[in-house]
What we know:
CATH architecture: 3-Layer(aba) Sandwich
Mean pLDDT: 93
Bound molecules: magnesium ion, zinc ion
Amino acid sequence: MRIxxxxxxxxxxxxxxxxxSVQNISxxxxxxxxxxxxxxxxxxxxxxAHVYAGITKSAYPFSMESFPYSGFSKTYSADNYITDxxxxxxxxxxxxxxxxxxxxxxxxSVAVTSITEIAHKNGLATGVVSTSAITHATPASFVAHxxxxxxxxxxxxxxxxxxxxxxxxxxxxxxxNRADGADLTIKLRELGYDVIMNLDDLKKSGSTRIAGLLxxxxxxxxxxxxxxxxxxxxxxxxxxxxxxxxxxxxMVEGSMIDWGAHEKNMEYTVAEVIDxxxxxxxxxxxxxxxxxxxxxxxxxxxxxxxxxxxxxRQYHRVVGNFITSGAxxxxxxxxxxxxxxxxxxxxxxxxxxxxxxxxxxxxIVK
Length: 366
Ligand code: MG
Ligand code: ZN
């Protein structure tokens, strides 16, 4: 009976308001679980040992530990059992396995669409935040299309396509200290972006479009003065994007977990994990209040083959051991999820599975 009434109402609505599509109705009135907003965290190089080292070392309860669902993803790329961050980011952002070194393109170098672009096309606000240059492999996978991850100046140009409302990270030099002499920040201002070079101005900005270029190249390490900034960048991105009544998609990367592990430097690595967890706390607090926000935390691959060979929980001490090469490894990486649809991110999945789940939960199509 109820279904019959609903069907009748739907038909009446479609007759009376022909512009009101079935999709719009289902986005607001469906009983199926939906998320209005999605916040995705990527800890570059963050395996389970990195997470547990952070939990052990942290003086405060860990946000990741409070997420009700967890699972694993398989990170291999189209041409290698061990992925790089280009293919890893592309798998998560675009739902396709590509070759190592590639950004937002398939193995044939043809551009593939990212979650950011699809969300933008469907009227959602979008954001990308990282502690590396914003043109670096992980954030670039959500915005740019290039068969060479190192083509930073070309990748910077792709940020002019307007699909990202808020981007905050390093990388100023790739926008205005370029081989071609162009200053892309002029174009960004024409497109309505508030171009911001420091954290204080970022906090003050009232713009709905923000290009935050907070370092010439990469930002500082957490342990060398950057600690807490990712938290503020995340807070600002959420504040701006959540003004969009249609919802938003935001990716936040803890870029330097990977770099600490490449250096086989336990202090550096763990400081970056803890710093990202502080940013996750901001997103989780927003999601708890908002009630319609899914937060997913994962990694693109593991770095360093890290094992924990000693430690003390009471004194927050942990001793790590990295593999000799300090390179990426093939092990599955963890994912943690909270909010509407969070249960879908449990079990073992390919790293390409995120895109369709995100689209389905947001009720949008390519
Ligand atoms: Mg990265
Ligand atoms: Zn790496």
